[in-house]
């Protein structure tokens, strides 16, 4: 079995690719439906070392002619992961702007896992700070982080002008590499504004918390 374009559309439940970002984002906010979809994806593809949506997104959504949008090849992502390797790695925080659907982040995550001894990899030792402007990329980026059980923040907005729509917090609550992560949305509070240097919120606050007792100190 393989994840061709039609298979991806069928699993998510869309009859046309242009509907994908909206439908996928709705699913991200429904934990039960989301994790059922993750398990179905894993029936078709178990190699999580690369971004499954790389070709799909580039062919269906990237403005390649007008804006010259092309995503980073996996080979470049692997090279960057190796170049940024730290000796005797135990804890690491990675920051990437313009994440797209997360191809480089996934390569870094894979490199971290492979540098750990079997069964010693712990999600809590690695944290990713992601920034992405595109509304269409965010659902795919969240999918990639959540299905891999990663810990991350995702700033949806313009990191240069510091105008932000939402900030998502992806958390592997059980610190179990075999588990999916939970999705939370940070409040539009003064603490979050200072922490992420937010000058302006472009959307209304979304109330969505899946991790217990997560925001007692950031509300």
Strand content: 15-25%
Please estimate the helix content.
Answer: 25-40%
What does the main sheet amount to? 6 strands, mixed
The poorly predicted ranges are none
Quaternary state, please? single chain
The chain-level mean pLDDT equals: 88
Instruction: Please tally the β strands and state the result.
Output: 6
| Count of alpha and pi helical runs | 8
Rg (CA only):
17 Å
SS class: alpha/beta
The span between the termini is: 45 Å
* N-to-C order of helices and strands: HHHHHEHEHEEEHE
Approximate shape: globular
What distinguishing features does this structure have?
219 residues; alpha/beta
Secondary structure elements and pairings:
Blueprint: H1 5-12, H2 20-28, H3 31-44, H4 54-60, H5 74-83, E1 92-96, H6 103-114, E2 126-132, H7 138-147, E3 152-158, E4 163-171, E5 182-185, H8 190-196, E6 200-201
Description:
By secondary structure, the protein is α/β, with parallel strands linked by helices. Helix content is 35%, strand content 16%. It contains eight helices and six strands; from the N terminus they run H-H-H-H-H-E-H-E-H-E-E-E-H-E. Helix 2 crosses helix 7 and helix 5 packs across helix 6. The N and C termini lie far apart (45 Å).
């Amino acid at each position: 079995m393989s994840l061709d374009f039609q298979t991806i559309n069928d699993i998510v439940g869309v009859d046309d690719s242009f509907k994908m970002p909206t439908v996928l984002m709705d699913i991200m906010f429904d934990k039960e439906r989301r994790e059922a979809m993750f398990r179905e994806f894993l029936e078709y593809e178990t190699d999580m070392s690369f971004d499954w949506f790389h070709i799909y997104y580039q062919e269906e959504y990237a403005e390649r002619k007008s804006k010259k949008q092309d995503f980073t090849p996996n080979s470049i992502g692997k090279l960057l992961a190796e170049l940024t390797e730290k000796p005797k790695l135990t804890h690491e925080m990675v920051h990437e702007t313009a994440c797209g659907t997360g191809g480089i982040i996934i390569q870094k995550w894979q490199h971290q896992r492979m540098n750990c001894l079997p069964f010693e990899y712990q999600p809590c030792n690695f944290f990713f700070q992601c920034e992405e402007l595109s509304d269409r990329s965010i659902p795919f980026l969240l999918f990639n982080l959540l299905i891999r059980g990663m810990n991350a923040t995702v700033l949806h907005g313009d990191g240069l002008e510091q105008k932000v729509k939402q900030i998502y917090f992806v958390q592997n609550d059980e610190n179990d590499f075999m588990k999916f992560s939970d999705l939370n949305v940070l409040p539009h509070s003064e603490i979050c504004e200072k922490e992420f240097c937010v000058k302006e919120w472009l959307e209304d606050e979304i109330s969505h918390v899946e991790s217990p007792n997560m925001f007692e100190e950031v509300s």
